[in-house]
Amino acid sequence: MPADSVLPPAESVATPEVLPPPEKHVGVGGAIHGAVPWIDKSGAVGGVFRAIRSLFGGMKITGGYLMRPSTVVTQQYPENRETLKLPDRFRAQLAFNHDDNGYHKCTLCRICEEACPNVSIIITGREKPAVSKKELDSFVWRLDSCTFCNTCVIVCPFNVLRFDGTFESSVYDRRLLSYTLNQYAGPVASVLEKLEDPEARKAAMEARDPYSGAAIIAALVEKQKATKIAERAAREAAKAARVAAKAAAAAAAAQPEAPPEAENVG
Amino acid sequence: MSWPVKTIAERTGDLLPGSPWTASVYVLLTILAVTAFMTVTGLVLIYAERKIAAHFQCRLGPMRVGWHGVLQTIADALKLLLKEDIVPRDADALLHILAPVLSFAGMLLVMIALPMSPSLQVADMNIGVLYVTAVSGLGVLGILLGGWSSNNKWSLLGAMRAGAQIISYEVSATLALLVVVLFSGTLQLSGIVQSQEAGWWIWRAHGCGIVAFAIFLIAGTAEINRTPFDLAEGESELTAGFHTEYSGLRFSFFFLSEFLNMFVLAAMTSTLFLGGWMPLHIGHFAVFNGVMDIIPPGLWFTLKTTAMIFLIMWFRWTFPRLRVDQLMRLEWKILLPIGFVNLFVSAACVVTGCYFFAR
Fold first, then answer.
1. Among A201, A206, B193, B248, which residue has the fewest nearby CB atoms (within 10 Å)?
2. CB of B143 within 8 A of CB of B155?
3. To 5 degrees, how large is the angle CA B256–CA B239–CA B55?
4. Does some domain include residue A212?
5. ipTM of this predicted structure
6. Residue A134's CATH number
7. Nearest-angstrom CA–CA distance, A72 and A52
8. Which residue range is the domain that position B218 belongs to?
C-alpha cells in the first residue's frame, strides 16, 4: 500500500458547504460581539435545516471511510514487521549521521548537551593539543529521560544528530536505556581473533540493528565451541571404540582358558 | 388475508388439549431457542458494532481471535463469565442484584410481541403497541435502580440523566407510534404489518410517515442511550454511568440488554414504518408484488432490521454527544411540537382518506 493511499481523498474530508461561514459571526478586528458565535440566531427553522445538513455531511464522511477499506491506517504490527511503514519524522532513537566512510562530524562543541532540557545527553571527551581538536570519548544518550523534543537535532551546527525510526527499544533492564552513540557495536579485537573463519569474522563486524536477536558473535563463538565439543566427543568415542575392540579381542583370546563356573561366581 | 399469522403461543394452545406434557416440552424448547437466539444476536451485534465502528474510524477492529476476529466476542463473553462478581460494600445488595435483571426483563418482554415472520412470533396481543410501550419502561427502572443502589455519585448522576432522558423521549416516541396506529387502525403488531400490504407507512402516508419515522428513530435512539444521546453512560464524563459498579455477569446483562434493545428498536421501527416482515409492495401492482413475494417474510424482516441497526450504528460513530440542556430542548421544544402537529395532520389524512392506496 503506497503511503499516499493512507490519507483519504481530499473531497471526502472537506465539506465546505457544511461549515458555517466564519465571517458572518466575527466582527471588526476579529472580535466576537453579540451572541455566542456558534449558536445560529438567524432563525430556528434555518438552524434546524443547517443542523440536519451538517449531520448528513458527517455521515457522508464516515460512510466514505466505511466504503473504502484503503482508508484504514491500522498496521498489523508484529505480522507486518517487514513492510512496516513509519512516518519519516517519527522520533524513536537518537542516532549519529555518518558519512560514506563511516565517520561522524561531531566536534565536541557540546551545544546539544547545553540545549538538552533534561540532561539526557552526556558527552565526555578530551583536548588533543597536537591537532588543536577535541577527541570524543563517549556520546551518551539516555532514552529513559529523553522527551524526544528534537532540540539537540535542531541546534547541532554540523548536522551530526538525527532521530530515526528504530522504535523497538524496549528492554528488561533500565540501565540498558543509556546508549553510547559513537560506539562500535560489534565485538572487540580480542574476541574477533577467536573466530577462525574469515567470513564469520566479517559477519560479526557488520553493522546491525539491536533487535535482530542475540549478538552474532556470541552465536558464532557458541557454534565454534559446539563443533569443537562435537569433534572432541567424536574423538573420544572413536578412542573408546578402539579400547573396547582391543578389550574384546583380548577377551576373545582369553576365552578358552576361562573356567566355565566363572559365571556362577559372578 | 393472504398472510395467516400463527404465533408460538397459539401453537402451544393447540397442543394443550392433546397432551399437557407435549405442550410443556414445546414451551421449554421455545424458551431454549429464544435464549439461544438472544445470546447469538447479542454476540453478533457486538462483533458487528466493533467492526463497523472500526471501519468508520479508519481502523480494523478485532483481528486476532479467529478469522478477522470473529471469535473475539465469544472470548470476551467467556472472560466476563469468569470475572469476580463484586457488590460494593455500601451498596444496597438486593437492588444491586435486581437492577440488571429488571433491565434485561424489560427488553425480553418486548421481544415477546415482536412479529419476526407470520410463523415466528411468540404472542400476538391485540394491544401489542400499548404493551410494548408499557413494558419497555421497565428498562428505565433497571437503570435507575442500578445507579441508585451502587451508592456512587457518578452512577447516580448517570442513572438520573438516563431516567430523565428516557421518560422525556418516551413521549415523542409514543406520538410517532400513534401516527402508525391511526393509519393502520389497530394496536395489534401483526395487524399493523398486514395493514402495510399495499405499501409501507413511511411513504404511503404522504409526509406524515417519514416525519413520524424520523421522530421515532431519534426518540428511540435516545431511549436506548446510544451515542448522540449517551449522556447516561458518557464515557468521558461519568466513566460508565449507571453500570460503573457492575462487574462480571451482571455487567454483561446490562451490556447485552443494551445491544438487544438496539435490535428491538430496529425491529420495532421496521415493523411500524417499513412493513416488518411484509415484502415490498406497491399498491395493486401484482407482477411487482409477486416478484417481491419470492423472498420469504422472515428474510424481509431480517434485512430491514439489519438496515436499521446499521443506520443506528452509523449515527453512533458520526454524531457528537448532546449536552443535557440541548437534549431537553430537542425533545420538548422541537420533537414534541412537530410530533403533535404531525399527529393532527395524519388524523386529518386518515379521516379524509387522503393517503396512498386508502381502502
1. A206
2. no
3. 60
4. yes
5. 0.76
6. 3.30.70.3270
7. 27
8. 83-352
What torsion do the CA atoms of B207, B211, B213, B214 make, to the nearest 10 degrees?
140
Taking only the tens place, the pLDDT of each residue in B32-57 is 988 898 889 989 999 999 999 898 88
- Of the three residues A183, A201, A233, the one that is the final residue of a domain is A183
B320: region left, alpha or beta (phi > 0 left; psi from -120 to 50 alpha): beta
Query: To probe the interface with B, which of A52, A66, A71, A73 has the most B CB atoms within 10 Å?
Result: A66
Question: In this predicted model, what pLDDT tens digit does every residue of B67-76 receive, in sequence order?
Answer: 888 898 889 8
- Check whether residue A35 and residue A14 sit in a common domain: yes
Query: Would you say residue A12 has pLDDT above 50?
Result: no
Q: How many domains does chain A have?
A: 3
**Nearest C-alpha in B relative to A39:** B326
In chain B, the residue whose alpha carbon lies closest to the alpha carbon of A62 is B56
Q: How far apart are CA B295 and CA B277, in angstroms?
A: 10
B34: three-class secondary structure by DSSP? helix
User: What are the chain B neighbours of A63 within 8 Å (beta carbons)?
Assistant: 56, 314
**B143, part of any domain:** yes
Is residue A85 a part of any domain in this protein? no
Q: The domain containing residue A224 runs over which residues?
A: 186-266
Pair B126, B187: CB distance under 8 Å:
yes
User: Residue B58: which pLDDT band, with cuts at 50, 70 and 90?
Assistant: confident
Last residue of a domain, one of A155, A183, A211: A183
Q: Which among A16, A44, A67, A58 has a CA at the least distance from the CA of B228?
A: A58
Same domain, A177 and A97: yes
Residue A146 in 3-state DSSP?
coil
- Best probe of the B interface among A62, A74, A76, by most B CBs < 10 A, is A62
**One-letter identity of residue B20:** P
